[in-house]
Design brief:
This protein has helices spanning 7-16, 23-32, 36-46, 49-67, 81-91, 101-124, 131-148, 156-166, 186-197, 203-208, 220-224, 226-234, 265-293, and strands spanning 175-180, 210-216, 240-245, 248-258. It is α+β, with helices and mostly antiparallel strands. α1 (7-16) packs across α2 and α8 (156-166) packs across α13. The chain is elongated.
Length: 302
């Protein structure tokens, strides 16, 4: 039974009809030698000027890409129009004169040099562990966050509610003015008191005696102690007496006492609105920081 011809056998038979006596040898040459049509096509293209131009352009652009790679964004420093204007604005605080072209260029060159050094320093890691650099960068980020926050003016209801909780910040506190000698032991303070009462105190003691004027009563306990505060407020004005503070014994004289005064919103409305606005801005800024913090993991070493 005869087998049907395979594709290879058909191809060999067709080739043998051209006149080759050895089909196997012809097939071998077909594997090692390019066809005449391919050779003729390459020869024709080699004579085309457009191909020469295309190849030459590819070589030039390829070499340029190797010698001049695309700029990295970190290596690009942009001096914006707003930045140039800031240099001009900061040249003279009184805005009476503008910098010359040369002066402006020097300021720009100085800033560019600083920016280059900063970037290179960051690349080398010199900012790591430097608290000053960390604080300055953090402060700049704060400014950027604050600059993006817009807080409208408070409504009258908002301001009244806030003032009710913070009115003590606007109240005029009770104040006292008094004289006080340096702290010492009780026996020495008693001798000083006797000398002062008999108007024979030394010039040195006179020079060391301090006059404290219009001191808020609420701050006395923190500085001198509660016993000193209570004793001073119980003294008659103009009379020298011994008083004990947390630092020692003093000779003191109450000079004047001025009662406090409760503030009204109508009198401090502008200041209250300004402080409210500042606190609201800070609150929103802190919320923005907390949103950033959500993407970080804070670890505490034991």
């Amino acid at each position: 039974m005869s087998m049907p011809a395979t594709p290879v056998e058909v191809q060999s038979f067709a080739t043998s009809r051209i006149g080759d006596s050895d089909p196997d040898a012809n097939a071998a040459r077909g594997k090692t030698e390019p066809s005449r049509s391919l050779v003729s096509t390459i020869a024709r293209l080699a004579r085309e000027p457009l191909l020469h131009f295309t190849l030459l352009g590819a070589i030039i652009f390829g070499a340029d890409a190797i010698l001049h790679p695309p700029a990295n964004d970190e290596k690009v420093i942009t001096v914006t129009k707003a930045m140039r204007q800031s240099f001009i604005d900061n040249f003279d605080e009184d805005k009476e004169r503008a910098p010359s072209g040369e002066q402006l260029q020097k300021m720009i060159d100085s800033w560019v040099a600083s920016e280059i050094l900063y970037r290179e320093g960051k690349t080398l890691g010199v900012d790591r562990g430097d608290e000053t650099i960390r604080d300055r960068v953090a402060y700049k980020m704060q400014l950027l966050i604050f600059d993006q926050i817009r807080v409208p003016r408070p409504t009258d209801e908002q301001l009244k509610a806030w003032f009710a909780e913070n009115h003590a910040r606007f109240d005029e506190p009770e104040r006292v003015s008094f004289y006080i000698t340096p702290p010492t032991d009780q026996a020495t303070a008693q001798r000083q008191l006797d000398d002062i009462v008999q108007q024979r105190e030394s010039e040195e003691l006179q020079n060391l005696t301090r006059a404290i004027l219009a001191r808020p009563v609420a701050s006395l306990a923190a500085s001198f102690g509660e016993d000193f505060r209570d004793g001073l407020l119980a003294m008659p004005e103009g009379q020298w007496k011994l008083l004990q503070s947390k630092d020692g014994w003093h000779v003191a004289r109450l000079d004047s006492r001025r009662p406090g005064n409760l503030a009204s919103l109508d009198k401090v409305r502008d200041d209250a609105a300004r402080i409210w606005h500042t606190e609201e801005t800070r609150k929103l800024a802190w919320e923005a920081v907390k949103r950033l913090k959500a993407s970080y993991q804070v670890r505490y070493e034991p």
